[in-house]
Amino acid sequence: MKTLIFKRLVQLVGVIWGVGTLTFVLMRSLPGDMAYRIAASRYGQDNVDSQAAALVREELQLDQGALSAYKDWLLDLLQFRLGDSLVSGEPVIETVQHMLGHSLLLSFAGLALSIAIAVPIGLLSASKGKMVDSALMGFSSLIRAMPVFVIGVLLLLLFALHWNWFPVAGFGTPAHLVLPALTLGLSLAAVSNRVVRDSAKRVFGSSFYLFSRVKGLSKWTTFKRHGIRNIAVPVVAFLGIQLVSMIEGIVMIESLFSWPGIGHGLAHAIFARDIPVIQGAALVMGILFVFLNTLVDLLCHWIDPRGVAES
Amino acid sequence: MKVLLKLTDISVYAGDTCLLEPISLTLKQNVPLTILGQTGSGKSLLAQAIMGLLPNGLTSTGTIELFGKEMTLKERQSLWGSKLVMLPQEPWNALDPLMKGVEQVKEVYQYVQNKTPQESLRLSMDDLRNVGLSGSEYKRPDQLSGGMAQRLAISAATAGGANFILADEPTKGLDVSRRDDVVRLLQSRSAAGGLLTITHDVAIARQLGGDLMVMKAGCLVEQGVAEQILRNPQADYTQALIEAEPKTWIDAEPVSKESHDEILIVNQLSLKRGGRILFEGLSFTIRKGEVVGVVGDSGCGKSSLGDALLNLLPFTNGTISRLNHEAKPHQWLKLYQDPPSAFSASVSLGQLLNDLVRLHRIDVQRIQPLMRRLKLPKGILERNCLEVSGGELQRFAILRSLLLDPVFLFADEPTSRLDPITAKEVTELLVELANETGCAVLLVSHDPDLIRKTCDQVISL
Questions:
Q1: A Gene Ontology molecular-function term (chain B) (predicted)?
Q2: Buried-exposed string A261-295: b where 16+ CB fall within 10 A, e elsewhere
Q3: How confident is the model over A6-54, as pLDDT tens digits?
Q4: Are residues B241 and B137 in the same domain?
Q5: Is the CB of B274 inside 8 Å of chain A's CB atoms?
Q6: What range defines the domain where residue B59 resides?
Q7: Which residues form the domain of A52?
Q8: pTM higher than 0.90 for the full model?
Q9: Are B350 and B417 found together in one domain?
Q10: Nearest to A207 among B85, B93, B111 (CB)
Q11: Of A214, A226, A304, the CB nearest to B81
């Protein structure tokens, strides 16, 4: 346990340095004059001229050499100073916090919904007959086969435009969260309900499950005592992977519902060459990935402690 | 004497195929009943039919009377735990892999006997202490040995108060001393109740006493008092089963192999595993065509020794010198204890054989005679490893090894999961092959009789 956490700390330092340096190099090597792009983002595409670009260049010291810029950035990073946005002038840390907060809210809401959908459906598939199983399998494949924005648009058309139950886009109230979270939840559940189903099928058919019944425990007690935890082992690991890859992958949903999350914000920052925001966002996401992975590992270890004592 | 169980014409069908011929029996209180027979003789189906545990697709006919009353499937299932219980064949698989041992006993007291959690814990701790598991109460099944797991499973099974026990191969894969423990435990747990044991092990039948039924391929061969039948068997089949016990085998004639070439010299070998020294300063020489037996209690490093000789396991100290330099690495082979785990179930055995032939450019002409020799039916090649019997599969594993002209074969308890008749055949076959082909065989077994009667040299760990 201790070695795991220590390893992850070392990994974290590596991730911070690696992600930061990589975004630095990549952003420097993007084609086009950076000063022009920043000026365009600040004043609008039609109001840019060489003079505005020159002003921006001077203000932000964009003509300084790559090495000295890297050194400045690294020194700032060591002091946890992420700088200000080149476009809005707001501190990066605040911008990222705002975006990340919304992304995490959406991700966890989506994940929670997907669990609420996938677990009952998976258990139903595993315990009922072949007919139910095949029907649910077909339905899952159908949802899975649709690109996530199609699901989003369908939900929008139905619940926002036709019935007017929920707002079309934006954020701020719980009602705004429903449709994006449902879209996310549905697309995640389409896969995870199969993982639940396979795991449950394996457990329901296992000798220890049967032995528990033979020992005299009722169906329900057997499920509670021996079902849930054993079924959870692969499911939790899979949900962890889903969660980690989802945070960057929800850009589609964020864009569709104008949700001010990190995927959405990062895309905009890249168009605007807002380097401090890109670096800040990439960095925080890197840290988040390591953190979430560690959390999932600890959770998996807590559920299934086998095979750790030896290693 | 009270009759606990009375079966009238119980048979089991899969569709129209009869898997178990109609059988009738009576089990009286305090008189254990043992059903003895080879694997695949439908014995396990009988126990499942009594419990109401037949797999989907199988149906049973006939009537089952329990405790003097004819019972339906539902009624029998309601007796589980409190009146009637069946012990699992493979305790490791029957215990929840993620739950601590004592919890698996405690839950029975708590949910079946409706005792308080504290009371349940106290009772389960007592139970585990009584079966010699003190100190291991909070271990998970994967941290227990096979014998310990079986004792835990028996404690868990009987905690609900059931004293009518069905035990289906309760000692599969256990060594002799563990086997005796389990049998004694079974006897004490079923005292004042009933015990129906299904086994292929004559020694267990003898130990349990009581009544005995001998079965072959789903049919009853002989029935009566255990002691009489075992002393004076009437049916040829019973005779064969008794003779297949290693204890009764004819002693191997010690053939001196001093003149044969040495192929392996082991000098001062030590092996450590998980911080524990398994053995130290072991020295021996293996010659061509020699059958070398390794005996010792479970966990003493028998399998580890074989693996070390095959370079599958690093050793701590000493040297292992292979003197046969012409032999390729794939001519040093291993025969596994559990045949199905040594084969892939996703392709047919024929496919596996073809792959081997192609990889090593083996002469196809050699396969047919060898298959005849090993008594492998031709149709076996179209099936996969789960669709053939354990004995057939182990013989197929031997075929696979022989095609590679092995110089050294490490047979890791090759017969511990086979019934005695098949086990005897497989063991004899290995000895014959060693003599004929000059391949040295390292035979590991938990049965000292088997080793003593077959091996040229014995290593005791």
A1: ATP binding
A2: bbbbbbebbbebbbbbbbbbbbbbbbebbbebbbe
A3: 888 888 888 888 888 888 788 777 777 777 777 777 777 777 777 777 7
A4: yes
A5: yes
A6: 3-246
A7: 31-81
A8: no
A9: yes
A10: B93
A11: A214
